[in-house]
């Protein structure tokens, strides 16, 4: 099973991202096949009402993240970005009238990974949804992914999908709630060792309802390396995070009729 540890340090701030970031040098083949994956929980931060915040949890050097996510309180907090950089970063927007708590979560490993982002970013007009995809280099598979954040607390692109459409891809869909055009930049984290993936059973939500979907790794002895969820653009994510053996997504249906969404997990045998 994956190990769980608190982060030694958590920070909130805006971090830059490049189109291609490559991890540390390759480990010996046997180490890469059997590398542990540790769930690292960052320091919790408070996001004020009707405000945005970005948070970060680092991996202990020389480890890097294969995937990650963010935990939140309340149904009024929505994910606007979640991506890998040194550890794991996340941005959320609090639409509620009360302060809420945000906690970033990283899956850290000494295994070598490569990161790629969608080029160019996808432009999303106000009041519409957009989808951006990023692909792994040839011969590698996706272990996790997300979308890269922008100016601190400025985004109102609410994520409604963050998952692997193929074994070497990652796709992010988001609905744009602000008055000005914004962009989606999807990131995929890749490696060359075997991974498996599974989707949950569907969770159906009525208009205005919040619910949870959870999925376990396909095989006993596997641990999650990344994950997310997928569904209709009107079903927007409140939180998305790993457990020791799977992945959980909580989402709110902002559409005018019932919609179904799914959790998705990518796993490996450490």
| Overall average pLDDT | 87
- Low-confidence segments: 1-33
Beta-strand fraction estimate: over 45%
Computed CA radius of gyration, to the nearest angstrom: 17 Å
Let me know the number of strands.
24
So what's the CATH class?
Answer: Mainly Beta
Keywords: Signal
Protein name: Secreted protein
Signal peptide: 1-26
Region (Disordered): 130-149, 217-237
Q: What is this entry, summarized?
A:
The protein has one helix at residues 29-33, and strands at residues 3-6, 20-22, 38-41, 45-47, 51-58, 64-72, 77-85, 87-94, 100-109, 114-117, 122-124, 129-135, 141-147, 157-163, 169-176, 182-184, 186-191, 196-199, 203-205, 210-216, 223-231, 235-242, 246-253, 259-268. With 270 residues, it is mostly beta strands.
Mind explaining what this structure looks like?
The chain has one helix and 24 strands. By secondary structure, the protein is mostly beta strands. The radius of gyration is 17 Å and the shape is globular.
Topology at a glance:
Blueprint: E1 3-6, E2 20-22, H1 29-33, E3 38-41, E4 45-47, E5 51-58, E6 64-72, E7 77-85, E8 87-94, E9 100-109, E10 114-117, E11 122-124, E12 129-135, E13 141-147, E14 157-163, E15 169-176, E16 182-184, E17 186-191, E18 196-199, E19 203-205, E20 210-216, E21 223-231, E22 235-242, E23 246-253, E24 259-268
Parallel strand pairs: 1-3
Antiparallel strand pairs: 2-10, 3-9, 4-9, 5-8, 6-9, 7-8, 10-17, 11-16, 12-15, 13-17, 14-15, 18-24, 19-24, 20-23, 21-24, 22-23
């Amino acid at each position: 099973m994956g190990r769980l540890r608190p982060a030694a340090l958590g920070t909130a701030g805006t971090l830059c991202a490049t189109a291609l970031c490559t991890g540390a040098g390759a480990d010996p083949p046997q180490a890469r096949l059997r590398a542990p994956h540790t769930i690292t929980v960052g320091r919790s931060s408070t996001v004020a009402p009707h405000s945005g915040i970005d948070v970060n949890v680092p991996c202990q050097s020389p480890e890097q993240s294969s995937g990650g996510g963010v935990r939140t309180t309340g149904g009024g907090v929505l994910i606007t970005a979640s991506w890998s950089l040194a550890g794991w970063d996340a941005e959320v927007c609090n639409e509620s009238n009360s302060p809420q708590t945000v906690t970033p979560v990283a899956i850290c490993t000494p295994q070598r990974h490569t990161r790629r982002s969608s080029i160019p970013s996808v432009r999303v007009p106000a009041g519409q949804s957009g989808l951006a995809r990023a692909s792994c280099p040839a011969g590698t598979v996706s272990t996790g992914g997300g979308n890269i954040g922008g100016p601190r607390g400025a985004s109102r692109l609410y994520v409604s999908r963050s998952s692997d459409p193929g074994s070497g891809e990652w796709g992010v869909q988001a609905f744009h709630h602000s008055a000005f055009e914004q962009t989606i930049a999807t990131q995929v984290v890749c490696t060359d060792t075997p991974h498996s993936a599974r989707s949950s059973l569907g969770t159906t939500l009525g208009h205005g309802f919040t619910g949870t979907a959870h999925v376990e790794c396909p095989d006993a002895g596997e641990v999650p390396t990344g994950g997310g969820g997928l569904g209709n653009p009107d079903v927007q994510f409140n939180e998305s995070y790993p457990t020791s053996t799977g992945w959980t997504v909580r989402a709110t249906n902002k559409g005018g009729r019932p919609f179904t969404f799914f959790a998705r997990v990518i796993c490996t045998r450490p």
